[in-house]
Amino acid sequence: MLIANRPAARCQGPISRRSFLQAGALSALGLGLSDFFKLQAIARDSGTELKDNAVIFVWLPGGPAHMDTYDMKPEAPIEYRGDFRPIRTNVPGVEICELFPRQAKIADKFTIIRSICHDFADHGGAHKRFMTGRIPATPTEFVNDAPAVTSIVTKMLEPRQTNALPPCIAGVDAGRSHIDVFSLGPAYLGTAYTPFIVAGDPSQRGFRVQNLELTSDMATRLEDRTHLLGGMDRLRRDIDAGGMMEAMDHFNQRAVGMLTSPAVREAFDLNREPASVRERYGWSAYGQRGLLARRLVEAGCPFVTMVWENPFPSGKIPDGCTYNWDSHAVNCHIFEDSRWRFPVYDQAVSALIEDLYARGLDRKVLLVVTGEFGRTPRLERNPGTQTKVTQPGRDHWPQAMSLLVSGGGMRTGQIIGATNAKGEHPVERILSPNDLWATVYRHLGIDFEQTILDHSGRPLSILPFGRPIDELLPAGV
Q1: What pLDDT is stored for residue 9 in this prediction?
Q2: Domain for residue 229, yes or no?
Q3: Which of 28, 190, 217, 293 is the most exposed place for a label (fewest CB within 10 A)?
């Protein structure tokens, strides 16, 4: 079972926090923004010019049940098909869950992939397998032995970042910001290449990004410290044969730039959105994180990961429901949980898709919505830990899963792949997570066959295998 509210451990990192940036730790690493930029610059490769595209990656930890969402089998035996029925969409022949009426109206704007699969049934192994594009050394636990895609993207896209936003930003629930909770670790690339993590519930009044907040006294100290550093750096620059003091200027300027940039603060400020837009996304963590993702890519962040676990993390989980998408019978009554969760999800994901298209971002921004695996096609029935009564659920199932792709100039209004009559395994167009990542890398202008060096200096390809999914690529490409 995926642990829901485990307190986040804090790694203090190798660099002192006695810096002028006393605005708090950066994500769960305990690094100030200046330290973050130092590490990035030290580790950075100089750059290939890349496309000005972006990705929003919506992560559904625990794994949604493909049989109850996008790959329903109404003709299967009752112990497989579950309680819900499919409904028609605005694309002939495409049907999805009856609890997704908003998505049904815009199915021409997304593609459903039903044939991605892998071999790791544990949450930890599946997170690592999906998030790294590599076969993990161990089938359990969440600590990566290879860099997460977010780290690869940060490394490859950092040279093109001309604004103050980090190349990768992630939004998570409070208490879930440790880098290993979702296997987002950088492994041998080092801590320079971790996403800037925004923790908390953006649907709550008073939500703020703590790392970007300066009090008036901190602003004064920041000004004094910047002035002092400028004088000291000028004094010492003539004795710095290696140019480190000039580099320090760059680190501090970028850090100060992020903290003081009106554009950065505005990108994170959801209060700048009209109430009608926020209501369209929904007053949930799903909805407001989706809106925040759109604001961040529009402001110039090339890769945004938004984790959708509990739709209302500041509220109480209803009886029979569970924290995230881990719908074992011991965790929840899967169909009661779905009746609570699915309408919130439907509103948030449909609003995000419609907003990207309405704002002309549908070619630049690629949206991917997925979990780490599917759920068992055959229902299980066990006593619930909370309810104490026997209830239906589904176990882990990496042999089949469904995910949604929209935008990015990709071909939409289609289904790619198919599973057998009971939803057990793909029978058409068998794909892996690597094929998805090859498509994502291609959209971002990253050569996924390019090599990077591991901790021993050995060159390793960004993706060991996988090819872009041809059916998604624009015609003629």
Answers
A1: 37
A2: yes
A3: 217
